[in-house]
Amino acid sequence: MLTDAQNLSPEEATKQILGYCTEPHGRMAILEHLHVPLTSDSYDKYIKKLVDDKLIASDLLVVRSAKKQIFVTTRKGLTFLGNISA
Question: Which Gene3D superfamilies does this entry report, sorted A to Z (predicted)?
Answer without folding.
Answer: Winged helix-like DNA-binding domain superfamily/Winged helix DNA-binding domain (1.10.10.10)
